[in-house]
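Bench notes, afternoon.
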Amino acid sequence: MSDGLRLDVEKYCHEHGREISGVKVNNGYTLYLLKECVFDPNHKGKDAAIGQADNGALFYQCFHDSCKGKKWRDAKERISGKDDLSPFMKSDLSNCPTIYSTGKKDSSENQDQDKISYLDPGEYMRTGQEIQDLQCAVTWVWDKQIPEQSITLLSAKGGTGKTWLSLGILDAVSRGVPYLGLKTKQMPIYYIDFENPLPVLRDRVKEIGITGAWFWHNGDTPPPPKIDSSGFSIYKRFPPGLIFFDTLRASQSQDENDSRHMAMVMGRLKELRGIGFTVVILHHTPKSNDRTYKGSTAIFDLSDHVLGLYRVKKGTTNEIVEDNDDEDEEKTFRIGTKEKTRYEPFHMFIRFSPGRGFEPAPDPDTEIMEAMWDVLLGKGKLTQLAAFEEIRDTLSIKSKQKVVRLLGKGEGHFWDVFKDGKKKLYEARATVQVSTPIYRETIGQMNETKSDVSEQNQVVNSEKTVDEPVLSNCPSTLQTDKTVQEIPDKSIESLSEADSEIF
């Protein structure tokens, strides 16, 4: 027997909450009998098993017709998503073919020296054409803000209102109604609360009137399992839906500044994403900067979509309100993408109303752009410098950078732009229509204010994104013609290496 690695099936199943009811050793393979089938919990007893050949190759079997053709990779996808299996590997794998074959001959005495054994890539991979042919597209749980089947990081300073915002989203999604003017997609809702005192949670849920969602509070018996605990697998047994963890720090026991620890925690959340969940993690920002997040960069790197909630000063979109700067009774907040998204950059402005929670707010720049328009109205075509001087002298705005930014933002809405060689000329429009609070992030252009989505809640306006778009409702397992064809019945005894699959 040569040195190697094989999957410790019993350890793997125990870690992921799959109970083994018995082990049956046969000539050439071992069956790990499951208490219930991975694909249908009604298939119980000795009907389903994970099999492991003596060479380490794995297969899945269930005697029911509805599970006919299910393979090990399908079972693994259901049990642990795309997680790395290395933590469950053990030594002593005999004569196991390697996935990473270089085409060199096997020097084993049993190997035919005139033959080279290759794996069929089609058993594990898709071609580029098959990827193009997939019938899937980006969908949104909360339009433009929370992509479906993603991990979204929502960071905000403590006390800013991220729990209020989350409960508002939760209530709207549970009923399938718009929230803050943006569409939602109805689905099961789970709120895992490690942060709030139970009376506070109760008061907020009652004030909003939430009825159609599930809550699991840290004070319940039993309490919700933490993300890094052995009980985490229970979450994977619920019907996939939108799941909130409030907060990242409280919902796990690792060091949030350690990249290895956070990679493990985020890996657990990827397991949920892999089986169809949409995950939202509430997270704190450091006191020194509301626009960033606490902890290791692994949190940021392994999130798909990063949202920020922070207050902005009236008349600006960039200046954050300091802790001691609370003179503005009508508090305006910015909610939307920050440094990273694999989807579409987007933000909007909202304000908090006691007793009602968050509601849409005007863009803080709108008021000042209207004043700039009034200054420029009737003055004809002005160069950028001349426009700045007019605005500076009338409105006492001394920052040229700010004026140039607002001139760019108001192009095509408050004023038209003309080219004179390399110069830009600005001319105020005779009439303007005040924009709504919702707009896309663009460079030098105000867009249409309505939310541009199809009836299926899919994006139809494709603009430049921070990263390449992710297909959020793609099939999670390989479903080429090869894998969905009928597979002839074969007995376990006649199972060959070609019929089995490698971990």
